[in-house]
Protein backbone atom coordinates (compact mmCIF):
# COMPACT_ATOMS: atom_id res chain seq x y z
CA UNK A 1 0.00 0.00 0.00
CA UNK A 2 1.29 3.45 -0.89
CA UNK A 3 2.32 5.56 2.12
CA UNK A 4 0.90 8.62 0.35
CA UNK A 5 -2.88 8.12 0.03
CA UNK A 6 -5.13 10.69 -1.51
CA UNK A 7 -4.50 13.65 -3.77
CA UNK A 8 -4.39 17.38 -3.43
CA UNK A 9 -8.07 17.71 -4.32
CA UNK A 10 -9.16 18.03 -0.67
CA UNK A 11 -6.99 21.12 -0.19
CA UNK A 12 -9.73 23.74 -0.25
CA UNK A 13 -8.31 26.17 2.32
CA UNK A 14 -6.05 28.91 0.90
CA UNK A 15 -2.37 28.01 0.83
CA UNK A 16 0.61 28.79 -1.37
CA UNK A 17 3.95 27.11 -1.98
CA UNK A 18 7.00 29.22 -2.72
CA UNK A 19 10.48 28.13 -3.68
CA UNK A 20 13.92 29.65 -3.55
CA UNK A 21 16.65 28.70 -6.01
CA UNK A 22 18.20 25.87 -3.97
CA UNK A 23 16.01 23.05 -5.33
CA UNK A 24 13.19 24.42 -7.45
CA UNK A 25 12.72 21.06 -9.18
CA UNK A 26 11.54 19.32 -6.02
CA UNK A 27 9.22 22.24 -5.26
CA UNK A 28 7.65 21.83 -8.69
CA UNK A 29 7.22 18.08 -8.05
CA UNK A 30 5.55 18.80 -4.70
CA UNK A 31 3.18 21.22 -6.40
CA UNK A 32 2.31 18.60 -9.03
CA UNK A 33 1.46 16.14 -6.27
CA UNK A 34 -0.77 18.73 -4.59
CA UNK A 35 -2.31 19.84 -7.90
CA UNK A 36 -1.21 23.44 -7.49
CA UNK A 37 1.40 25.82 -8.88
CA UNK A 38 4.41 27.51 -7.32
CA UNK A 39 3.63 30.92 -5.88
CA UNK A 40 4.89 33.86 -7.89
CA UNK A 41 8.04 35.33 -6.41
CA UNK A 42 10.99 37.05 -7.98
CA UNK A 43 14.05 35.57 -6.23
CA UNK A 44 17.29 36.95 -7.62
CA UNK A 45 20.55 38.57 -6.56
CA UNK A 46 22.09 42.00 -6.78
CA UNK A 47 25.41 42.32 -8.58
CA UNK A 48 27.32 42.00 -5.31
CA UNK A 49 25.55 38.75 -4.37
CA UNK A 50 22.88 40.08 -1.99
CA UNK A 51 19.57 38.20 -2.08
CA UNK A 52 16.69 40.20 -3.55
CA UNK A 53 13.16 38.85 -3.11
CA UNK A 54 9.79 40.22 -4.20
CA UNK A 55 6.56 38.29 -3.57
CA UNK A 56 4.48 38.89 -6.69
CA UNK A 57 1.00 37.93 -5.44
CA UNK A 58 -1.30 38.54 -2.49
CA UNK A 59 -0.52 36.33 0.53
CA UNK A 60 -2.46 38.20 3.22
CA UNK A 61 -3.84 35.66 5.68
CA UNK A 62 -2.62 32.70 3.59
CA UNK A 63 -0.64 29.67 4.80
CA UNK A 64 2.70 29.95 2.96
CA UNK A 65 5.16 27.07 2.58
CA UNK A 66 8.71 27.94 1.49
CA UNK A 67 10.63 24.97 0.10
CA UNK A 68 14.35 25.58 0.42
CA UNK A 69 17.08 23.10 1.44
CA UNK A 70 20.16 24.86 2.79
CA UNK A 71 22.60 22.90 0.66
CA UNK A 72 25.60 24.11 -1.39
CA UNK A 73 26.14 27.05 -1.51
CA UNK A 74 24.94 26.77 2.09
CA UNK A 75 25.25 30.39 3.21
CA UNK A 76 23.65 31.80 0.05
CA UNK A 77 20.69 29.42 0.25
CA UNK A 78 20.22 30.02 3.97
CA UNK A 79 20.22 33.79 3.50
CA UNK A 80 17.81 33.46 0.58
CA UNK A 81 15.43 31.49 2.81
CA UNK A 82 15.64 34.10 5.58
CA UNK A 83 14.94 36.94 3.15
CA UNK A 84 11.95 35.08 1.67
CA UNK A 85 10.53 34.52 5.16
CA UNK A 86 10.94 38.22 5.97
CA UNK A 87 9.26 39.21 2.71
CA UNK A 88 6.27 36.97 3.44
CA UNK A 89 6.01 38.22 7.02
CA UNK A 90 5.94 41.83 5.85
CA UNK A 91 3.30 40.86 3.27
CA UNK A 92 1.04 39.72 6.17
CA UNK A 93 1.10 36.00 5.40
CA UNK A 94 -1.22 34.06 7.71
CA UNK A 95 1.58 31.62 8.64
CA UNK A 96 5.00 30.80 7.24
CA UNK A 97 6.30 27.23 7.18
CA UNK A 98 9.92 26.62 6.16
CA UNK A 99 10.16 23.28 4.35
CA UNK A 100 13.82 22.28 4.60
CA UNK A 101 14.42 18.89 2.95
CA UNK A 102 18.05 19.30 4.03
CA UNK A 103 18.90 21.33 7.15
CA UNK A 104 22.40 22.76 6.77
CA UNK A 105 24.75 23.23 9.75
CA UNK A 106 23.06 20.25 11.46
CA UNK A 107 26.43 18.55 12.06
CA UNK A 108 27.40 21.38 14.40
CA UNK A 109 24.79 20.50 17.02
CA UNK A 110 27.00 20.48 20.14
CA UNK A 111 30.39 21.61 21.42
CA UNK A 112 32.88 18.87 20.63
CA UNK A 113 35.93 21.02 21.40
CA UNK A 114 36.53 24.15 23.49
CA UNK A 115 35.59 27.53 21.98
CA UNK A 116 33.52 26.14 19.10
CA UNK A 117 30.01 27.29 18.06
CA UNK A 118 26.74 25.39 18.13
CA UNK A 119 25.84 26.53 14.64
CA UNK A 120 22.65 24.46 14.37
CA UNK A 121 21.22 26.49 17.27
CA UNK A 122 22.31 29.72 15.57
CA UNK A 123 20.43 28.73 12.40
CA UNK A 124 17.35 27.91 14.49
CA UNK A 125 17.52 31.35 16.10
CA UNK A 126 17.92 33.05 12.72
CA UNK A 127 14.87 31.29 11.29
CA UNK A 128 12.78 32.19 14.31
CA UNK A 129 13.94 35.81 14.27
CA UNK A 130 13.11 36.06 10.57
CA UNK A 131 9.48 35.22 11.40
CA UNK A 132 8.93 31.56 10.53
CA UNK A 133 6.02 29.92 12.36
CA UNK A 134 6.89 26.26 11.79
CA UNK A 135 9.71 24.18 10.33
CA UNK A 136 9.39 20.94 8.37
CA UNK A 137 12.73 19.10 8.14
CA UNK A 138 13.71 15.67 6.89
CA UNK A 139 16.23 13.28 8.48
CA UNK A 140 17.98 15.77 10.74
CA UNK A 141 21.56 14.81 11.51
CA UNK A 142 20.68 15.02 15.20
CA UNK A 143 17.10 14.75 16.44
CA UNK A 144 17.79 17.08 19.36
CA UNK A 145 17.98 20.00 16.92
CA UNK A 146 14.19 20.11 17.25
CA UNK A 147 14.75 21.36 20.79
CA UNK A 148 16.73 24.36 19.52
CA UNK A 149 13.45 25.88 18.31
CA UNK A 150 10.69 27.47 20.38
CA UNK A 151 8.26 26.94 17.51
CA UNK A 152 6.77 23.66 16.19
CA UNK A 153 9.17 21.45 14.25
CA UNK A 154 7.93 18.52 12.18
CA UNK A 155 10.69 15.96 11.67
CA UNK A 156 9.96 13.48 8.90
CA UNK A 157 12.02 10.62 7.49
CA UNK A 158 12.83 9.40 4.00
CA UNK A 159 12.28 5.84 5.22
CA UNK A 160 8.97 5.18 3.37
CA UNK A 161 10.63 6.05 0.06
CA UNK A 162 13.77 4.04 0.84
CA UNK A 163 11.84 1.01 2.08
CA UNK A 164 9.87 0.71 -1.13
CA UNK A 165 13.14 0.37 -3.05
CA UNK A 166 14.99 -1.81 -0.52
CA UNK A 167 12.16 -4.34 -0.10
CA UNK A 168 12.15 -5.01 -3.83
CA UNK A 169 15.93 -5.34 -4.08
CA UNK A 170 17.21 -7.18 -1.00
CA UNK A 171 16.32 -10.52 0.64
CA UNK A 172 15.68 -10.84 4.37
CA UNK A 173 19.11 -12.42 4.97
CA UNK A 174 20.85 -9.11 4.25
CA UNK A 175 22.20 -7.00 7.12
CA UNK A 176 21.59 -3.33 7.93
CA UNK A 177 24.73 -1.55 9.09
CA UNK A 178 24.97 1.58 11.23
CA UNK A 179 28.15 3.53 10.35
CA UNK A 180 28.55 4.67 13.98
CA UNK A 181 26.95 4.41 17.41
CA UNK A 182 24.91 7.57 16.82
CA UNK A 183 23.09 6.02 13.88
CA UNK A 184 21.97 2.85 15.64
CA UNK A 185 18.39 4.02 16.18
CA UNK A 186 17.98 4.81 12.47
CA UNK A 187 19.57 1.50 11.41
CA UNK A 188 17.42 -0.45 13.87
CA UNK A 189 14.26 1.08 12.39
CA UNK A 190 15.29 -0.08 8.91
CA UNK A 191 16.32 -3.50 10.21
CA UNK A 192 13.00 -3.99 11.97
CA UNK A 193 10.92 -3.10 8.92
CA UNK A 194 13.05 -5.22 6.56
CA UNK A 195 13.21 -8.09 9.09
CA UNK A 196 17.01 -8.29 8.80
CA UNK A 197 19.89 -8.45 11.28
CA UNK A 198 21.83 -5.40 12.46
CA UNK A 199 25.54 -4.57 12.59
CA UNK A 200 27.36 -1.54 14.00
CA UNK A 201 30.67 -0.04 12.96
CA UNK A 202 32.84 1.23 15.80
CA UNK A 203 34.87 4.16 14.51
CA UNK A 204 36.90 7.11 15.72
CA UNK A 205 36.84 10.58 14.16
CA UNK A 206 40.18 12.36 14.75
CA UNK A 207 39.22 15.31 12.51
CA UNK A 208 36.22 16.56 10.44
CA UNK A 209 35.57 14.36 7.37
CA UNK A 210 38.15 11.85 8.67
CA UNK A 211 37.18 8.53 10.29
CA UNK A 212 39.12 5.51 11.47
CA UNK A 213 37.30 2.17 11.47
CA UNK A 214 38.09 0.23 14.64
CA UNK A 215 35.73 -2.73 14.83
CA UNK A 216 32.50 -4.23 13.43
CA UNK A 217 29.90 -5.42 15.91
CA UNK A 218 27.66 -8.09 14.41
CA UNK A 219 27.84 -10.78 11.74
CA UNK A 220 28.13 -9.61 8.12
CA UNK A 221 29.79 -12.70 6.67
CA UNK A 222 28.24 -13.89 3.40
CA UNK A 223 25.53 -11.22 3.45
CA UNK A 224 24.59 -8.13 1.47
CA UNK A 225 25.47 -5.25 3.81
CA UNK A 226 23.41 -2.05 3.57
CA UNK A 227 24.96 0.96 5.29
CA UNK A 228 22.22 3.36 6.41
CA UNK A 229 23.03 7.00 7.21
CA UNK A 230 21.49 10.46 7.07
CA UNK A 231 24.11 12.17 4.89
CA UNK A 232 27.27 11.57 2.90
CA UNK A 233 29.70 14.43 2.25
CA UNK A 234 33.18 13.50 0.99
CA UNK A 235 32.44 9.75 1.37
CA UNK A 236 35.70 8.98 3.16
CA UNK A 237 33.90 7.41 6.13
CA UNK A 238 31.48 5.54 3.89
CA UNK A 239 34.18 4.02 1.70
CA UNK A 240 36.30 3.03 4.71
CA UNK A 241 33.25 1.32 6.19
CA UNK A 242 32.63 -0.56 2.94
CA UNK A 243 36.23 -1.76 2.87
CA UNK A 244 35.96 -2.93 6.47
CA UNK A 245 32.74 -4.82 5.77
CA UNK A 246 34.27 -6.61 2.79
CA UNK A 247 37.30 -7.58 4.90
CA UNK A 248 34.89 -9.07 7.41
CA UNK A 249 33.31 -11.30 4.77
CA UNK A 250 30.35 -9.31 3.45
CA UNK A 251 29.14 -10.56 0.06
CA UNK A 252 28.46 -7.03 -1.19
CA UNK A 253 28.10 -3.52 0.20
CA UNK A 254 25.40 -0.97 -0.57
CA UNK A 255 24.71 2.41 0.99
CA UNK A 256 21.36 4.06 1.68
CA UNK A 257 21.77 7.76 2.51
CA UNK A 258 19.09 10.45 2.61
CA UNK A 259 21.18 13.54 1.83
CA UNK A 260 23.75 13.08 -0.92
CA UNK A 261 26.01 16.10 -0.54
CA UNK A 262 28.79 14.21 -2.37
CA UNK A 263 31.36 17.00 -2.23
CA UNK A 264 34.62 16.41 -4.13
CA UNK A 265 36.25 13.89 -4.14
CA UNK A 266 33.23 11.80 -3.05
CA UNK A 267 32.29 10.39 -6.46
CA UNK A 268 35.87 9.36 -7.25
CA UNK A 269 36.10 7.59 -3.91
CA UNK A 270 32.79 5.79 -4.42
CA UNK A 271 33.75 4.67 -7.92
CA UNK A 272 37.04 3.27 -6.59
CA UNK A 273 35.42 1.64 -3.54
CA UNK A 274 33.75 -1.69 -2.84
CA UNK A 275 30.32 -0.02 -2.78
CA UNK A 276 28.10 -1.54 -5.48
CA UNK A 277 25.42 1.15 -5.28
CA UNK A 278 24.62 4.20 -3.18
CA UNK A 279 20.96 5.17 -2.89
CA UNK A 280 20.27 8.86 -2.19
CA UNK A 281 17.28 11.18 -2.43
CA UNK A 282 16.68 14.45 -4.23
CA UNK A 283 16.48 16.41 -0.94
CA UNK A 284 19.57 18.07 -2.41
CA UNK A 285 19.46 18.62 -6.20
CA UNK A 286 21.82 16.01 -7.67
CA UNK A 287 24.49 17.37 -10.00
CA UNK A 288 24.72 16.06 -13.58
CA UNK A 289 27.77 13.91 -12.76
CA UNK A 290 25.91 12.35 -9.83
CA UNK A 291 22.90 11.51 -12.02
CA UNK A 292 25.22 9.98 -14.62
CA UNK A 293 27.14 7.82 -12.16
CA UNK A 294 26.48 4.08 -12.59
CA UNK A 295 26.88 3.63 -8.82
CA UNK A 296 24.33 6.24 -7.73
CA UNK A 297 20.56 5.77 -7.57
CA UNK A 298 18.45 8.88 -6.86
CA UNK A 299 14.97 8.45 -5.35
CA UNK A 300 12.44 11.28 -5.18
CA UNK A 301 10.97 12.44 -1.86
CA UNK A 302 8.60 14.94 -3.50
CA UNK A 303 5.48 12.86 -2.80
CA UNK A 304 6.54 12.42 0.83
CA UNK A 305 7.10 16.16 1.24
CA UNK A 306 3.85 16.90 -0.56
CA UNK A 307 1.91 14.61 1.76
CA UNK A 308 3.55 16.23 4.78
CA UNK A 309 2.68 19.71 3.50
CA UNK A 310 -0.92 18.63 2.92
CA UNK A 311 -1.27 17.19 6.42
CA UNK A 312 0.28 20.23 8.10
CA UNK A 313 -2.08 22.50 6.18
CA UNK A 314 -5.14 20.42 7.11
CA UNK A 315 -4.03 19.83 10.71
CA UNK A 316 -3.70 16.06 10.23
CA UNK A 317 -1.19 13.72 11.86
CA UNK A 318 2.23 13.17 10.27
CA UNK A 319 3.14 10.18 12.43
CA UNK A 320 0.91 7.81 10.48
CA UNK A 321 3.23 8.28 7.48
CA UNK A 322 5.84 6.15 9.26
CA UNK A 323 3.79 3.38 10.87
Describe this structure in words.
The protein is an alpha/beta fold and 323 residues long. It contains nine helices and 14 strands. It has helices at residues 24-33, 74-90, 119-130, 159-169, 184-194, 236-247, 266-272, 288-292, 302-314; strands at residues 15-19, 41-45, 51-55, 63-67, 95-100, 134-138, 153-156, 175-178, 197-207, 210-217, 224-232, 252-260, 275-281, 296-299. The strands form three sheets. A seven-stranded mixed sheet has the order 10-9-8-11-12-13-14, sandwiched between helices. A five-stranded parallel sheet has the order 1-4-5-6-7, with helices on both faces. A hairpin with a 2-residue loop joins β9 and β10 (210-217). α1 packs across α9.
Say what oligomer this is.
single chain
Strand adjacency order, main sheet = 10-9-8-11-12-13-14
Strand percentage lies at: 25-35%
Total number of strands = 14
Mean pLDDT rating: 93
Unreliable stretches, pLDDT < 50, 5 or more residues? Answer: none
Fraction of helical residues? 25-40%
What separation lies between the terminal Cα atoms? 12 Å
* Rg of Cα set: 20 Å
Q: Can you summarize the main beta sheet?
A: 7 strands, mixed
- Overall 3D geometry? globular
Amino acid sequence: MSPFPGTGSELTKPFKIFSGNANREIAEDVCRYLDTTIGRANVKRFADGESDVEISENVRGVHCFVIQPTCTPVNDNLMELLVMIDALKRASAGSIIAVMPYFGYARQDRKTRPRTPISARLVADLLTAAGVDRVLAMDLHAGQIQGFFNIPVDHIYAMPVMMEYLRAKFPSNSVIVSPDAGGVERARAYSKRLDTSLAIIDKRRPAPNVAELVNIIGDVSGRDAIIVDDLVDTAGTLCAAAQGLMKNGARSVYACVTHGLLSDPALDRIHASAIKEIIITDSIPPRADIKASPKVRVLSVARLLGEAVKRIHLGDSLSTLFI
